[in-house]
Amino acid sequence: MLTSDSMSLLWLTYLGLSLVVLLSGYLGLAFLPRLLRLPVTWAVAGILWIPARFRLPLVEGEVYTGFAPAVVVATVALLERNASVLMTSGLLVAAGALLGAAVGLLQVWLFRTSDATEARASGSSRGGKRGDGQDESQGRKQDNNRRRNERSGGQQPPAAHKRREPKIG
Length: 169
Hints:
Helix content: 55-70%
Keywords: Membrane, Transmembrane, Transmembrane helix
Structural class: mainly alpha
Oligomer: single chain
Distance between the termini: 78 Å
Mean pLDDT: 82
Strand content: 5-15%
């Protein structure tokens, strides 16, 4: 049934391509912090996934009515200079962007609270100092060195020989 109905196949293809666009956009925004990256990605998702109703005139007064992504309906209305359709679909696009940005901010907030909970549980919320006055990073270095020495049986690796450079000429 799925391959015989062209509309459902068209929507599934659109969904797959929009997921590829969203994933590549999210990865392309890797230079941004998560606080900005997630709301921007979700805002684009809202723009891409909000549907809108459209009417397409056919021959002799017949009209085809269906659903399409609101951004596509708004683009076609802009090209046809149809202000009423552009207003409704444009408002849907804006609502989708705002809804997507809200979902992204909610996701950032949920991630932030879980990170803070983990930090409190591990005891690193005491200002980065351990009880004996050492920095947390120094304590970690010493723990790593101690584990490395235990693994190698307490022996240090052999000293590297001085590097010899070739002489030309």
